[in-house]
Amino acid sequence: MVVGVAGMLAAPLLFITSGYSFMQTGHLGDTIGGVTAPISSLVGSILVFLALKGQIIEKAEDILKSPYVLEFLGLDAKAAYTETDLESAIINKIEHFLLEMGKGFLFSGRQVRFTFDGEDFFVDLVLYNRLLQCFVLVDLKIGKLKHQDIGQMQMYVNYYDRYVKQEFENPTIGIVICKDKSDAVVEITLPKDNKTIFAKEYKLYLPSKTELKKLIE
Fold first, then answer.
1. Among 98, 114, 122, 173, which residue has the fewest nearby CB atoms (within 10 Å)?
2. pTM of structure
3. Is the pLDDT of residue 34 over 50?
4. What pLDDT does residue 211 have?
5. Is-contact 64 102, C-beta < 8 A?
């Protein structure tokens, strides 16, 4: 499964290297780092070099990004939609979602149930990162992040660490993907040495040129 994108250009020729895929045009003969690549431009050569070099993945923060741009889902930002609608849209475009998540992600399940103390709990999305060798649990929130959301994710992560993951696997990562993140809530809810629980925002569309200009100003 393709798990990352380095870049996309016209007249495609597909490359998959070091967990990245990208589309490029060109001719055989150019050599980057001792590897012959079908590239016809300096820019393309640089893209290939960066793709071959790859991103160094050592800890959870190395695979995270913010915001996640979910424009490919086709949801109207002004229309009312539920968390179930968001989840269903992601499942229908799961390959696009994994590409947006970053390098090394694999899909494991949706609404994955586990039972603890006689009560059923459901994780929205269960992913696995083959580079970090750990489960990645995703909870989707269409509103503003609350401290209860973080506490819930902490419980999910604790369960997976204690009852699901194998000894050779690394600690489980939990990501609450929300529409509006509060850094203050995250900071006061999680311990200072937290390395496994994260809150990240999502956007349903890329900012317009006007919006980008306002952000810069």
1. 122
2. 0.68
3. no
4. 61
5. yes
